[in-house]
Amino acid sequence: MTNDQIEVLYEDNHIIAVNKRPSDIVQGDKTGDAPLSDFVKKYLKEKYNKPGEVFVGTVHRIDRPVSGIVLFAKTSKALSRLNAMFQTKEIQKTYWAVVKNKPKNISGKLVHYLRKNEAKNMSKAYEKETPGALRSELEYDMICSLDNYHLLEVKPLTGRHHQIRVQLSAMGCPIKGDLKYGFDRSNKDASIHLHARKIEFIHPVKKEPVVIIAPPPNEILWNEFVKRVG
């Protein structure tokens, strides 16, 4: 990735939000691939001609095959405040998910108990309280249908490991391309059709409302849904 490939959605003195591509990782992992945070640092260093190290604080993460909004802090003050806001659920995230099976109800709330398997990097959903499982809630609405696929707007009410992926799968609606959670084939680029579409919060320093929206990847199915939904 080069700096001109970073799609900046929002930036001020305290915060920068970028539109992550499905192949990017937010923070370094065992693959050794350069994380998105490094490219954001390079972008800021070059844009402002900064000498020395540039501060970029990672506030939250989204899975590697997922696209969409990732928020970074440009100051330690913003980082600590945003971290606290995520903890207290003052930041509302909205996702788009493309699924093959039409949900039985076109809108609803899902409640499961998710238990993470560290060895497999997967979570399993249970209908009832289970030892080691955490209560997980989300709301969804079906907002558009094509011949073979349906677009759901999803609002997670908790922040669990792979929550949207595993809960939609448990509902019988695995996300397109998500082999790990029950879809029948992978996408050619190893992405899944889950996109962090919107994020809303009160600015941690300016105390003003901020709404950031990210266009989905430039891909035939996403493009068709965007055309329909607007």
CATH topology: Pseudouridine synthase
- Name the helix and strand elements from N-terminus to C-terminus, one letter apiece: EEHEEHEEEEEHEEH
Q: What's the domain count? A: 1
Shape: globular
Name given to the CATH architecture: 2-Layer Sandwich
Number of strands: 11
Report the sheet-strand fraction.
25-35%
> What would you call the structural class?
alpha+beta
Determine Rg (CA atoms, Å): 18 Å
What's the SSE blueprint?
Layout: E1 8-11, E2 15-20, H1 36-47, E3 57-58, E4 67-73, H2 76-87, E5 92-99, E6 107-117, E7 122-126, E8 134-145, E9 150-156, H3 163-170, E10 194-202, E11 209-213, H4 220-229
Parallel strand pairs: 4-10
Antiparallel strand pairs: 1-2, 2-4, 3-4, 5-9, 5-10, 6-7, 6-8, 8-9, 10-11
